[in-house]
Amino acid sequence: MAESIPKIQILKGAEPDLSAATYQIHDESHTIGNALRWMLMKNEKVEFCGYSVPHPSENHINMRIQMYDGLSSLTALIQALKDLDDLCVTIDEEYTKSLQSGQFERWDEKS
Amino acid sequence: MASSSSSQLPPSVFNPRRHVGVHAERVSDVASTDFPGHYPGEDHTWSLARFKENLTVSVKRLSQRSVEFDLVGVDASIANAFRRIMIAEVPTIAIEDVFVWNNTSVIHDEILAQRLGLIPLNVDPALFSPRLPGDIPYDRNTLVFQLDIECSRGAKGAIINEYVTSGDLKWVPQGEQESVFGDLVPTATNKDIVIAKLRPGQVINVELHAIKGVGKEHAKWSPVATATYRLHPLVLLNPSKPIPPHLAQKFASCFSPGVVKVSPDGEVSIDDRHLRKETMSREVLRHKEFEGSVELKRVRDWFIYSVESEGPYAPEVLFPESIKVMRGKIAAIRAAAEALLADSEGPDAGAAAAGPDADGDVEMEP
Questions:
Q1: In the Cβ-directed half-sphere of B97, how many Cα atoms lie within 13 Å?
Q2: A86, B16, B73, B232: least buried by Cβ within 10 Å?
Q3: In Å, what is the CA distance from A99 to each residue of A92, B70, B186, B320?
Q4: How far apart are CA B212 and CA B259, in angstroms?
């Protein structure tokens, strides 16, 4: 794709202080959309968070975030991304631990 | 409603908040409720420490082609992200360009090319960089194969090369490839895939260029045959309405073998060790006499993954690969979001209207 498309765009209609904004994330889908929405909703300062895939043949998602107390939704987004990364690291560590413990059934599968 | 006392399952599994109800013709309580503000006075904000405490990942079965593991304590949105990534965004190498020098078989060129593309190759994708449209093919992004085969009649009417299989692909090393691959000669993971059938005199002579890609572009780049999950089944007996001994065998036969234990005096109990084998056929709900004595549930945050590898990855490394891809995506978005933040905090803080200057070409991890 063309280099000119930014990864994230703030759609028009956002509050000037970004306490409510819609972020258009390019080249992403339900994979990130739903996971990120869940993590944002775990933040108690988030009043509303939802995402949509506006059209199946358009390669982007719209993420709507509205905050309590006039806080910045962009900061909340960055925090959610950090937390999501921590979650990934934790799951990876646990999986590796389980795999290395070797406490599972091994079997021979005919192909 | 508690299950048998000698339970193999952790007691928290019987917390009704974690249950998805399975009824005769519908399911109930599908959506998760662990959000701040849902339960008054309870704290459901994100806490890594709490997440670590509740998380269990355990590999259950492993073969050379497939793996089954449990992921307990995560939301469906997270579990689904990893499943989607395993199918569509973990890269592999597949044949993309087919140059047909000669093809006198009954298979049309484009059908032949389609079939060749779908052959899983045993090449480690980490050795390659993606070749984007317009890029020049070279040894770091393109793998070349030759398929040159002619069918002929041998002694006593035997037909030589009647079947063209994936084992007939000949690797043509380019540049440094010979030293990089060493003994790991690139071939198909399965050498017995029939690509075409020939009659004496027919010829196929094609040159094949394989490149790196991901499953969302075309399924031929998907590293898995299947990557699915299901929720852990749960059968709850109602202690105030036990199954009468004369119906015990009938009750047990409503479930998968081993799930329901019947004692010699006809007492019914659930064997937790075999609970994961329950097919949740809902047969028990069809019988009037069992109404109210049993409930079928699934545990909302207990995911039983089943992943079959078809390609270069060992089955047990597919899940860590998907986590790697996920983290790459997160890093790319985070870099863009931080650039956006730096922009809005800049001299003219009228952020919302200003064109964001996010770095669009953040590198994704392979």
A1: 13
A2: B16
A3: 11, 12, 28, 11
A4: 46
Q: Please count the CA atoms within 13 angstroms of the CA of B319 that sit on its side-chain side.
A: 33
Contact A9 B362 (CB under 8 A): no
Contact B57 A89 (CB under 8 A): no
CA distance B100 to B107: 12
CATH homologous superfamily of domain A8-101?
RNA polymerase, RBP11-like subunit (3.30.1360.10)
Give the A window 35-64 contacts with B, CB below 8 Å: 35-39, 41-44
Of B37, B48, B33, B40, the residue nearest A48 (C-alpha):
B37
Of A77-91, B54-68, B349-363, the range with the lowest mean pLDDT is B349-363
Structure confidence by residue, pLDDT tens digits, B113-167 = 999 999 999 999 999 999 999 999 999 999 999 999 999 999 998 999 999 999 9
Check: CB of residue B30 under 8 Å from CB of residue B324: no
* Contact by Cβ (8 Å): A73, A66: yes
Cα–Cα distance for residue pair A96/B153, rounded to 1 Å: 55
What's the CA gap between B143 and B212, in Å, rounded? 9
**pTM, two decimal places:** 0.91
Residues B260-287: tens digit of each pLDDT: 999 999 999 999 999 999 999 999 999 9
Residues of chain A with pLDDT > 70: what percent? Answer: 97
CA distance A43 to chain B (A): 6
Over chain B, what is the mean pLDDT?
A: 92
- Domains with residue ranges and CATH for chain B: 16-88+226-308 (3.30.1360.10), 92-222 (2.170.120.12)
Higher pLDDT, B351 or B30: B30
Here the ipTM equals 0.95
Contact yes or no for A40/B35 (Cβ under 8 A): no
Alpha-carbon span B37 to A97, nearest angstrom: 34
pLDDT of residue B70: 97
Taking each helix axis from N to C terminus, what angle separates B76-88 and B315-344, rounded to the nearest 10 degrees?
110
A86 touching chain B per CB within 8 A = yes
Candidates B75, B316, B330; nearest CB to A38 = B75
Q: How many CB atoms lie within 10 A of CB B12?
A: 12
Closest among B67, B1, B73 to B32, alpha carbons compared: B73
Token digits of residue B225: 């045959």
